[in-house]
Fold this sequence. Notes:
The complex is a heterodimer of chains A (251) and B (95).
Chain A: H1 4-25, H2 34-62, H3 68-73, H4 84-87, H5 93-114, H6 120-148, H7 152-166, H8 177-184, H9 195-208, H10 231-245
Helix pairs in contact in A: 1-2, 1-8, 2-6, 5-6, 5-7, 5-9, 6-7
Chain B: E1 8-14, E2 22-28, H1 32-43, E3 51-56, H2 68-72
Antiparallel strand pairs in B: 1-2, 1-3
Amino acid sequence: MKNENLYNYILGIADNSLILGQRMGELCGHGPSLETDIACTNISLDLFGQVRSYFQYAGKIAGDGRTEDDIAMLRKEREYKNVLLVEQPNTNFAYTIGRQFLFDVYHLAFLAELQKSSDLTLSAIANKCIKEVSYHERFSSDWVKRLGDGTEESNQKMQDAINDLWTYTDELFHLTEADKATVAEGIGVDVTKLKDNYYKSVSNLLTEARLQTPESKWFQKGGKQGVHTEHLGYLLSDLQYMQRTYPNMEW
Amino acid sequence: MSTKNWPLWEIFVRSKNGLEHRHFGSLHAADAEMALENARDVYTRRNEGVSIWVVESKHITASNPENNGELFEPAQDKVYRHPTFYDLPDEVKHM
Lengths: 251, 95
């Protein structure tokens, strides 16, 4: 493929939204209340909308007739480039919110930079997505505050979720080969530059929510290279079930 | 886990600039801020609105259906309260 770096770069961005969207979509009909159920699935649909724009563009770059659906549904586990954070399961509502919050703060800062990309399609997509993601960030940080500053039990659960998910945050700021190549061309975002502000914002919000910022310096990585936690395989078997069972089906 | 329910809120949505807010329905939320966010997700996710009001349901005083007779029936047989006996020029579209 002529533009393999750009292709892989786009997949790296889009896979985060795809996998997180699938996780949020799992709450359809299972949210803790009707209102939060709808809110979570709304976020899911926003993310899937973003994924469509990215994959349509990636399909065009590949130039071999592959469609957005092929890219979303027909890759193997090791070919997904999402960060480990977004594939973590909905252990309870605190984990759902914690995962969303830790990703949203990054996602918002990332899109603000992607708007400045020299690739006009990517910058246009970022421009559209950033409004949705601003709302996601508002929703998830509000909930972190409510749970953290709520009852003793909700505080404990929120703290546990943040402590467990913390180990997946550092990976957000790792550069892949595709990152390095596209950054050099003025297309990609140098995520290493977002790191300090990220931890500052997250830590401020956690303090406001009467939660402790974890001090652990040991972080997991691998998602961006396709080495995932055990959770992704199960998620993909749900996501891909229809296309695998009835190849090329449409509705 | 607490099983206490969140209070009920009434949701009013303005669907277009220039139109008035209309009652859309009700939902549960812990406070006004959450009621606004929930209303955004529950009632405006298909592009239904440009502005939302939320009011906690307990602040609404409603008329009692038992009093419908004295409240509303007297108006039923007084057609002369409607200005229907005037000839209106065609230019006046909405009256």
